[in-house]
Write a structure and sequence with these properties.
By secondary structure, this protein is an alpha/beta fold. The chain contains twelve helices and twelve strands. A six-stranded mixed β-sheet has the order 1-5-6-7-9-8. The chain has a six-stranded mixed β-sheet with strand order 4-3-2-10-11-12. Strand 2, helix 4 and strand 3 form a beta-alpha-beta unit.
């Protein structure tokens, strides 16, 4: 602030004297770099305030040991990855930071302070960070911090788009909570303060105001929620400060070794359209390059983020024949791993474990379920890591011989799976 005020005062004095600031002043390397230092400081200040007290470590490219080809045009957006030594799949988080951390600790990925200790593990979070809870931004920042820490250790965290990410970028806030609106309202205040601080510094481009042109009142929304509603639109619309920064990094379809990850499910038409093409088009839409609404394959009941054909509560309702056809069209694919539909019985597999469902409704805003994650180690069969006290931790595995029923060794009084709309 003192530096910024100094620049402004110098500029005002020069104007009063009708004399320009000498060019030698800006040619001094120290003075030339100060605006960038100020900008970085302001960004860190805003991030710290919004994230609940996190300092994001510097971003670093993935190490060569990951054997991941660099593609500058894709902004590190990957569709196909080789099998890692250890792979962890995490289901829907829905704005519950405490449960999110519990799931990651369960897999030995973070310590008690929230620092990455997962080494070279690859983690796939299958989408739906947003809605139903009040820690949405805190989770986005926390995952970003872990991405950077993991990369330094040869690990990788991949986040995906769920239907709730798509809905929010489109401005559909039906499942936002009061706490979620308040979190975004606070973000809006801090972000605006940061922009005003930057505007004081000569040498910095005037920051873009994401609130410009947005209404201050919204029909059908209680007046007390208008500020939060407005801030959420500003943050999450295509190319918004939050959507462009965090959600544009998400994949929508991912193949890791023999496993296909997608939030809802894939149909033959999706595969023939092109998995890489889907990822790139959704990314470009979130970056504001292709209109207000998501591509058609992200909308309606048969969309990649909405499909429930392979996650119905009854195993006999899973279309195993269609699923097998889809997997046969994806080279090397043996299973599809999905979220979206809450499985109250826990992570489970059907159709000879070609369909594995990992949304356990862990968020307090959903079913407040016991955190569980799916683990693959080398070529061993996948196993379920669970915090459910009724099950023996770290020893539950998918029953590879199951043809129609649940592929999980359930405790005697397990609840049935339930479908939570959207």
């Amino acid at each position: 602030m003192y530096i910024s005020r100094y620049y402004t005062t110098m500029n005002e004095r020069s104007l009063l004297r009708e004399k320009p600031i000498p060019m030698e002043y800006f040619e001094d390397p120290i003075c030339r770099d100060v605006p960038n230092f100020v900008s970085a400081f302001v960004d860190s200040f805003v991030d710290f305030s919004v994230s609940g007290g996190l300092f994001l470590p510097p971003a670093s490219p993935p190490p060569a040991s990951q054997n991941v080809p660099a593609d500058p045009s894709s902004s590190q957006l990957h569709t196909w990855l080789p099998s890692p030594d250890r792979l962890i799949a995490v289901g829907d988080l829905h704005g519950d930071l405490s449960k999110s951390k519990e799931a990651l600790r369960l897999a030995g990925l973070i310590d008690g302070s929230g620092r990455w200790i997962g080494g070279s593990a690859t983690v796939v979070q299958i989408g739906d960070v947003l809605d139903r809870g009040g820690d949405e931004l805190k989770i986005l920042y926390f995952l970003e911090k872990l991405k950077r820490e993991a990369a330094k250790d040869g690990g990788m965290i991949i986040t995906m788009n769920g239907n709730h990410e798509i809905m929010n970028v489109e401005g559909d806030f039906r499942y936002v909570t009061k706490e979620g609106l308040e979190e975004f309202r606070a973000w809006g205040d801090w972000f605006s303060v940061g922009n005003k601080m930057k505007a004081l510094c000569v040498g910095l481009e005037t920051p873009k105001d994401p609130f410009q042109g947005l209404p201050t009142a919204f029909r059908g929304v209680k007046e007390e929620f208008h500020p939060g509603f407005r801030a959420r639109i500003a943050a999450l619309h295509p190319n918004g400060p939050i959507s462009g920064r965090f959600l544009s990094q998400n994949t929508t379809v991912l193949v890791v070794g023999e496993s296909v990850f997608v939030h809802g499910g894939l149909l033959p038409g999706h595969v023939s359209y092109g998995l890489q093409r889907i990822n790139e088009e959704v990314r470009d839409w979130i970056k504001g390059l292709s209109g207000k609404f998501a591509p058609d394959y992200c909308r309606r009941s048969n969309a990649v983020v909405w499909l429930r054909k392979f996650s119905d509560e009854s195993a006999t309702n899973c279309d195993c024949s269609l699923l097998k056809h889809v997997l046969d069209t994806i080279p090397g694919a043996k299973r599809m791993i999905m979220g979206h539909t809450i499985q109250m019985a826990g992570i489970n597999g059907v159709c000879n474990n070609q369909a594995i469902r990992i949304d356990v409704g862990m968020s307090k805003g959903c079913a407040d379920g016991f955190p569980e994650v799916l683990e693959f180690v080398g070529n061993s069969p996948p196993r379920i890591l669970t915090s459910n006290p009724y099950m023996k931790q770290y020893t539950n595995s998918l029953n590879v011989d199951t043809k129609d029923g649940l592929g999980l060794l359930l405790h005697e009084h397990a609840q049935k799976q339930v479908e939570v709309k959207a």
